[in-house]
TrEMBL record:
Pathway(s) the chain acts in: Metabolic intermediate biosynthesis; chorismate biosynthesis; chorismate from D-erythrose 4-phosphate and phosphoenolpyruvate: step 7/7
Protein name (Swiss-Prot/TrEMBL): Chorismate synthase
Primary enzyme class: lyase
InterPro entries found in the cross-reference section: Chorismate_synth (IPR000453), Chorismate_synth_AroC_sf (IPR035904), Chorismate_synthase_CS (IPR020541)
Protein's gene: aroC
UniProt entry tagged with the keyword Aminoacyl-tRNA synthetase: no
A cellular component term, taken from the record's GO annotations: cytosol
Amino acid sequence: MSHNSFGHLFRVTTFGESHGPAIGCVVDGCPPLLPLTEADIQQDLDRRRPGQSRFTTQRQEPDQVRIVSGVFAEGDGPQLTTGTSIGLMIDNVDQRSKDYSDIKDKYRPGHADFTYDVKYGIRDYRGGGRSSARETAMRVAAGAIARKVVPGMIVRGALVQMGPHKIDRNNWDWNEVGNNPFFCPDAEAAALFERYLDGIRKSGSSIGAVLEIVAEGVPAGLGAPIYGKLDAEIASALMSINAVKGVEIGEGFAAAELSGEENADEMRAGNDGRPLFLSNHAGGILGGISTGQPIVARFAVKPTSSILATRATVTRTGGEAEMFTKGRHDPCVGIRAVPVGEAMLACVLADHYLRHRAQVGVIEPRWPFEG
């Protein structure tokens, strides 16, 4: 299987299966002398970890990460990156492979079972094997390192829609995100989500969601105008997350309803002599290059395909069958996708930061009217 890596200068390669002994990743290109401990990574993994509420899968994985290479501490000094490959490992400890024995010869509707089998001629039916969202734990681990690469960068995410129910943006409060199990920035919407998802969960069904990721403190000038567009690579990274079916930057699809006057982000001279944008419809990216404004990306996650309802399917031998999915599954997989989306955006920005530094030799943008 190819294509287990993403990124260029900051490059992440993941490995492992849902029901294998462990999952892991190798991070190449991380600069030396950055402080890095397992605790730095664990705090992000704990936000993605399953089994933390009744609204996520009850698989009990502690997701304890081990750094197995790429760091060094001299004497009593801090543990620092060495500039070599950083190896990370997480043991799988709560697999229940027997839950999947009934489907080994059947294709689950909505899953990658059929496409995986038709491509490789073999599949690990225990939780989807390599195609399982279990792999995203390693993306979150890599994202924790990526956050350290870009000085002053803050990447945060939130769930802004569940099924047909959207947040009230007038109520947006980043401090509220950690106060509910949905990563929701609107306390009133979070209460609604709780009642709504309880009904979905008890019925054995599932529902989709929309997530918004915002990166602040990103310098202007990252990206390239043709094949290295920053927004294109962000879209590719977010679309690579399991169950994601749509990505938009800034206004996204809503821009189709705006006039040119409404959509253009007008500028004035700021007090520091640099341009001051009066709006951010572009989501912090113009012509594939960052503007220095917050980068805003949203992605839509489909309903979890593993539900208790009986559905029609076929077998590997071409027969028709009916099935329902056993096991422990998320009624809304979008909830735990928030830290995954943050990690993917952080990794793309770290990669482009290093590429920009390598190409132009500086990070501070060259403001044209500064002389």
